[in-house]
Write a structure and sequence with these properties.
Layout lengths: L7 H9 L3 H9 L15 H7 L3 H10 L17 H8 L8 H11 L5 H10 L4 H11 L14 H12 L3 H13 L1 E3 L2 E7 L6 H8 L13 E11 L5 E3 L5 H20 L21 H11 L26 H19 L6 E9 L6 H4 L8 E7 H6 L1 H15 L15 E6 L8 H17 L2 H10 E6 L9 H13 L8 E3 H15 L4 E3 H9 L12 H10 L14 E3 L2 H12 L1 H4 L4 H13 L1 E3 H9 L10 H10 L17 E3 L13 H4 L5 E2 L2 E6 L6 H14 L1 E2 L4 H4 L3 E2 L2 E5 L5 E7 L2 E8 L12 H17 L9 E6 L11 E2 H5 L5 E2 L8 E2 L1 H8 L6 H6 L13 H8 L6 H7 L4 H10 L5 H14 L5 H12 L5 H8 L10 H4 L4 H10 L4 H7 L4 H10 L3 H16 L5 H10 L5 H4 L1
Helix pairs in contact: 3-5, 5-6, 5-7, 7-8, 9-14, 10-12, 10-14, 12-14, 12-21, 17-19, 30-32, 32-37, 36-39, 43-46, 44-47, 45-46
């Protein structure tokens, strides 16, 4: 294909007429805007300034942010686009000067004081530009969204209002922020359904956007907070910017306006002012503003703008404290916005979420799918009529949405509401009326013929719409808006009260998000609370509750606020895009030979290396994934999107992850010979059964992620290892005697313990703690998936089949507990009953068994009064993949273990276990910990005889003939040792006799890890004096598995 050549005249004409689509086509055709120049050396940004087209510049920047570097580049006269604009202004439309300068300053990122000085200097002939620049210099956030696209007159009037805002309005604003609660009136519209049914097309048509060149949605396309809708008339208006920040401003303004209307109805004089309000009518507001500008002697702006009489008002604003400045600024913004655009109490704000329908994306879709939305569920009528498989997919979607409902017992319409839409009506035979009748008849059939679907329809479906995909101006679209508004009242959080100060914090977080701040710490959020325009007493704001509210509504991601360094992700879609790069890796590297083997392994096994993740993220430079790699990985692990595995010995496998949704499809019959042969000792199968509830595959992917993360692979032969991990099916190691198989399908999770020797009988209570761990894990997964209400929807059953089948027969555990006779159940031919002894394995508390209680009194640790940190480290060495069951037996909660593991995620597994042991022991009286630990170790089949000897031993004395081992480390030695320490460094220092608290403190004090190691080694040498020998260093390193021979050499 011939290269596209864009001449000066063609480019200038295209910019002048605002043909953004043509410019985009040039870029897609490999025209590099970063290298394009006209004869005067002007780049594309210069040209937009000369033509007075900031809208073109902004749209191109949104689509191709990689060209933002042009804002700093100079033309042949040494002028950047910003300086050119300040000196001469737009060549064609002088009214856009200030809007253009504001845009260029925003694209510049964080302009320096030197930048402002240069701009003010070149604008010496234009007083209005200098007025704006002086104001902008002290207002880093720039013009608010509702004003920044207006003409110069309105922008200058706004600046004047900010500087001279009425004190009475400021006080009312402050009082409202502190005392009032807002009302949650936000309609989230979720376009969902299978791929290729027309979701994106419908979304665009409903918002009057072009449907040309539309492509299949990749993951999700969201138009956040683009519209406001009148709840009475269904009239829509577009919000200036497609940003969450604008919505937060709109919400605050609406509540302030509503408060003012209550206090001072229109026509009633405010007690703080001497004149009645003069708010313009809706149809006249812009003309009125223009007249007011004239009356106030703010001049009309001509091309030269040499004699502007507008004066920058000097006074109180510049002399206030930062909080007072912010209060005045926001009060002015809210009041001025009320004059500029009308908002009523009847308005709600809308965000549109267009979700990809492919199964591949279901895991990330679940980050956003909640009951707090109106679901537009689309399906292809023609496909469903011709193929029953498509009806099954429609049923799956209906059941998935129903699972988000918090109260399915009620037969009345409830959250989340569904508008069911049948597309491709035009492809049915007959006239328009006949097509509609066919569609409505089909809808009636799929609902009434299936009792479960009929119940779901009764609870959730508001109405059914058949749509013709060929019509852009279908009147049904307007009817659809009325249906959405009607359905909105059934959203789960509709009209819920929200403190106004929470809205203020949301506004500031969204402002940071708009500046591409992806991650914030809890400390940074607290600083934003302290920096709000109103002062809230400590403890009264409810930061954690506010973050939970923002998380629940999909505005941010926040899991826990356990430490000041806890991370909050301000843009959940950013994380979803990062995961998309992982699960669609072949799209990023389709034909790169050096990666083909790694890619094949990934797609066959679901196993991916950190190096490959970094390579994929490195291709998405604009998103800055690599900059926040540890936070992204931590959140994806927390969400169960990917997970680091635990090896059989409980040792970390560095820089390797499994992606549960990429695992090969489950083939449970492939392990039947392993589980059901005569030599295998197995338990009855514990079944978690969700009663009349659909459980989606992402839930089971996250269950698998938990098991991969907390249990090693089962002890199987090399050939059998290939079947250990499949999607929804896994074989895991519990301890050196027991394995388990987990199978998840439909609405059932099955758990079976097994061992390879027939004489290794299972004892009562042996599965008790495993049951508790899996129950706690399942509850955590449901809450994380925003389906916490389903915690009450599952019950426990038993049978004898390790896999889920369509004809399974299960025995409720409560029935079996009271039965003295075996009860019939599903299972292999020779085992179709369960009895009380099967129940005992899972439900008897082993600590209450007489033999266990007796063994606790003969602990070989009885001579130990209390374990030291070093002894805890020695015990940790013996605890492998059974740690989860062991600590559950010791009484620790699953979330406590997860908190510790997250805190020490960058350190070795043994350090994590040591920290768990210390945390557990600190909560118990002496002696009781010794007995409990011995009992737990024995129950998990840990060999304790060698451990007992090891706990009594200390570092042996050095051989006097070994001079190197006997000498005290010098500074050079300390530097060399510090270089060789790895992620087992905590264990190393414990072996030297130091305490965990000392190590933690040094890591806090020293930002550099090597400096912290050096500091700790010097402390140890100073403390031990002549007994601090190199020999002790060697033995400590050997204990930690560190390489130390080269240190001797």
């Amino acid at each position: 294909m011939a290269a596209v050549i864009v001449t000066d005249d063609i480019m200038r004409y295209t910019v002048e007429i605002g043909d953004v689509t043509r410019i985009e086509d040039w870029v897609y055709a490999k025209v590099d805007l970063s290298k394009w120049r006209d004869i005067s050396g002007n780049n594309f940004y210069h040209l937009c300034v000369l033509c007075g087209k900031p809208s073109v510049l902004e749209k191109i920047d949104q689509t191709f942010p990689q060209y933002r570097c042009l804002v700093k580049q100079e033309n042949g006269n040494g002028m950047t686009p910003l300086l050119m604009c300040c000196k001469s202004g737009p060549y064609i439309d002088s009214a856009t000067t200030l809007a253009t300068i504001d845009l260029l300053l925003r694209l510049d990122g964080q302009p320096t004081m030197q930048t402002f000085s240069k701009c003010i200097s070149v604008a010496k002939e234009h007083n209005d530009i200098r007025v704006y620049l002086r104001w902008r210099k002290g207002s880093p956030s720039g013009l608010p969204n509702f004003i920044k696209k207006e003409n110069n007159d309105i922008i200058l009037k706004y600046i004047n209002v900010v500087e001279t805002v009425d004190k009475g309005k400021t006080k009312r604003y402050q009082k409202c922020m502190l005392e009032r609660q807002g009302v949650f009136e936000h309609i989230r519209i979720f376009y969902v359904g299978p791929e290729g049914v027309g979701k994106s097309t419908l979304c665009r048509r409903m918002t009057n956007r072009s449907t040309q060149n539309i492509r299949s949605t990749d993951l999700m396309d969201s138009s956040m907070n683009r519209l406001a809708v009148n709840l009475r008339t269904c009239q829509r208006r577009e919000i200036h910017e497609d940003t969450a920040y604008q919505l937060s401003i709109e919400k605050i303004r609406k509540e302030i306006h509503h408060s003012d209307q209550k206090l001072h109805p229109p026509g009633v004089t405010s007690p703080t002012t001497s004149k009645p309000p003069t708010r313009p009518n809706d149809g006249e507001r812009l003309d009125t503003l223009s007249n007011e500008v004239k009356e106030n002697d703010v001049p009309k702006h001509t091309l030269d703008r040499q004699k502007s009489s507008f004066k920058f008002p000097l006074g109180s604003y510049g002399q206030q404290s930062e909080r007072e400045k912010k209060l005045i600024y926001n009060a002015a913004e809210i009041n001025f916005a009320g004059d500029l655009q009308k908002s009523t109490d009847e308005e709600a704000y809308i965000s549109l979420w267009d979700f990809a329908g492919e199964e591949l994306y279901m895991n990330t879709n679940h980050l956003f799918l909640t009951g707090d939305a109106v679901f537009l569920l689309l399906f292809n009528i023609v496909q469903c009529i011709n193929d029953s498989r498509h009806i099954k997919r429609l049923h799956m979607w209906l059941k998935s949405i129903d699972a988000l409902s918090e109260d399915r017992s009620s037969p009345t319409l409830q959250a989340p509401p569904i508008v069911l839409i049948g597309t491709h009506l035009d492809q049915l035979p007959g006239s328009d009326s006949e097509k509609t009748l066919q569609a409505e008849s089909f809808y009636s059939d799929i609902v009434t013929r299936h009792p479960v679907m009929a119940a779901i329809a009764e609870r959730h479906i508001v109405t059914f719409f058949p749509l013709d995909n060929l019509k852009d101006d279908n009147p049904m679209y307007e009817m659809l808006w009325y249906a959405i508004v009607k359905a909105a009242q059934h959203q789960s959080h509709w009209k819920c009260p929200v403190p106004m100060v929470w809205l203020a914090l949301e506004r500031d977080i969204m402002l940071a998000k708009g500046k591409r701040v992806r991650v914030m710490t809890l400390d940074e959020v607290i600083e934003k609370v302290k920096g709000l325009e109103v002062e809230v007493k400590e403890g009264e704001f409810g930061v954690e509750e506010c973050l939970r509210y923002l998380h629940r509504t999909g505005i941010i991601l926040c899991f826990g606020t356990d430490s000041p360094d806890s991370k909050i992700i301000t843009d959940p879609q950013w994380l979803a895009r990062g995961f998309r790069a992982i699960i669609t890796a072949r799209n990023f590297m389709p034909d790169i030979p050096e990666h083909s083997e790694v890619m094949d392994h990934y797609y066959k096994t679901g196993e991916i290396t950190l190096a490959l993740i970094k390579l994929l993220w490195g291709k998405e430079k604009e998103d800055g994934f690599l900059q926040h790699e540890p936070v992204l990985i931590a959140y994806m692990v927390r969400l169960g999107l990917l997970t680091p595995p635990l090896s059989e010995g409980g040792i970390d496998i560095d820089e390797v992850f499994f992606v549960p949704s990429i695992l090969p499809e489950a083939e449970p019959e492939k392990i039947q010979h392993l589980i059901e042969n005569t030599y295998t000792q197995r338990s009855a199968t514990l079944c978690f059964v969700f009663i009349n509830v659909f459980v989606s595959s992402p839930v089971y992917d996250k269950v698998m992620a938990f098991c991969i993360h907390n249990f090693g692979k089962a002890d199987l032969t090399f050939m059998e290892q290939g079947y250990c991990l499949q999607r929804g099916l896994g074989c895991f190691r519990l301890n050196r005697r027991r394995n388990m198989v987990l199978h998840c399908q439909d609405s059932i999770i099955k758990l079976t313990m097994f061992s390879s020797t027939s004489d290794d009988a299972l004892e009562a209570g042996e599965g008790f703690h495993l049951k508790n761990v899996l129950t706690a894990m399942l509850k955590t997964v449901l809450v994380t998936n925003q389906q916490g209400h389903l915690v009450k929807e599952f019950d426990l059953f038993l049978d004898k089949s390790y896999r889920v089948t369509n004809d399974g027969k299960y025995v409720r555990e409560s029935d079996l507990a009271q039965s003295s006779e075996p009860l019939d159940c599903s299972g292999p031919a020779n085992s179709k009953t369960v009895c009380k002894s099967d129940w005992d394995v899972w439900f008897v508390d082993p600590s209450l068994r007489a033999d266990v209680m007796e063994s606790a009194t003969v602990s070989p640790f009885n001579t130990v009064k209390r374990f030291t940190s070093k002894q805890m480290s020695r015990i940790a060495k013996y605890i492998g993949s059974s740690y989860c069951l062991l600590f559950t037996e010791l009484g620790m909660k699953l979330h406590e273990m997860e908190q510790v593991r997250e805190s020490y995620s960058s350190e070795c597994f043994r350090t994590f276990i040591t920290q768990l042991l210390c945390k557990w022991q600190n909560g118990l009286p002496p002696k009781s910990s010794i007995q409990s630990i011995y009992t737990a170790l024995s129950a998990n089949h840990v060999e304790t005889s060698l451990l007992s000897t090891e706990l009594q031993s200390d570092i042996a004395s050095m051989d006097p003939s070994d001079e190197d081992a006997c000498r005290v480390p010098n500074e050079n030695d300390i530097d060399c040792i510090a270089l060789r320490l790895n992620k087992s460094y905590v264990i190393f220092f414990l072996e030297l006799g130091m305490e965990i608290a000392e190590v933690d403190q040094a890591m806090l004090d020293c930002k550099n890890v090597r400096r912290a190691f050096t500091k700790l080694l010097k402390q140890w040498v100073d403390r031990c004096g002549q007994t601090a020998s190199m020999g002790r260093i060697y033995k400590a390193m050997q204990e930690c598995g560190m390489e130390h021979n080269s240190l001797r050499e």
